[in-house]
Amino acid sequence: MTEPEMRPVASSVNPTVRRRRLGQELRKLRELKGMTAEEVAERLLVSQSKISRLENGRRSISQRDVRDLCGVYGVEDHRIVDSLMQMAKESRQQGWWHAFGDIPYSVYIGLETDASSLRVYEASLVPGLLQTPNYASAVSEGSWPEATAAEIERRVQVRMRRQERIHDLDNPLRLWAVIDESALRRIVGNRDIMQEQMRKLVEFSMEPHITVQVLPYDVGAHPGMYGKFCILEFNDPQDASTVYLEGITSDLYLEKPNDVQTYSVMYEHLRMQALNAEHSRQFIERVGEEWAAAG
């Protein structure tokens, strides 16, 4: 078996991305061996789903897992084994988000933290990276009615911490957001909060690395009617673009080229149907004035 070339991984890579890359390397080794995930699972007396989760980076990978898998794949080069073992060790380190406790979408946060660009479509609310603290709090209270005040505050803190990426002048996140008009019209919290949010959206839209487009009601049917989604892209060619679909109890990550291409084409259609950046800014300003007049 010809073993794959191991590329060095920068020490600054966060644990989520490190785990994802390690999973990719393990999948390459399995494919070179000509084995299916089911066959590997049978050899190690584990479930096939565990092998799949290890390879897609959705599960922590221990050094023991790496050792066992390398044994099954017949990896004899100790440099490769040592490199994979080191990656496994570093992938279990904690990112900044772990300080906030159990975050349901922690995998997504890890990817977002490392992404170079993010394309977002939102159907019913302002994207999290563009929310004000008051709006974020009202969203959490409404969507999570059984949460305590402390849990709501923790979620808001995480959301505000995530926004540091778009304020990072050295490495800003390139953000493109297409927002359905209904997100601007739906009252979240109260009218003052909505007016403040519209004003903040306008401020964000003036940043050179942020584009905000509004998809007005009068465009009729459009590709985003099935719900919100976002597409993450990365600087490192080893990291495949990923489509993120958020669910109530679980999330979905699509990395197959065909899936990413399908959603990318959908996003291009949404961008073409939406108002351009300048007209969107004017639209948001008018909606903000309407919220102010209604207060």
Automatic annotation (TrEMBL):
<feature type="domain" description="HTH cro/C1-type">
    <location>
        <begin position="26"/>
        <end position="81"/>
    </location>
</feature>
<dbReference type="InterPro" id="IPR010982">
    <property type="entry name" value="Lambda_DNA-bd_dom_sf"/>
</dbReference>
<dbReference type="InterPro" id="IPR001387">
    <property type="entry name" value="Cro/C1-type_HTH"/>
</dbReference>
<dbReference type="Pfam" id="PF19054">
    <property type="entry name" value="DUF5753"/>
</dbReference>
<dbReference type="Pfam" id="PF13560">
    <property type="entry name" value="HTH_31"/>
</dbReference>
<dbReference type="InterPro" id="IPR043917">
    <property type="entry name" value="DUF5753"/>
</dbReference>
<protein>
    <submittedName>
        <fullName>Helix-turn-helix transcriptional regulator</fullName>
    </submittedName>
</protein>
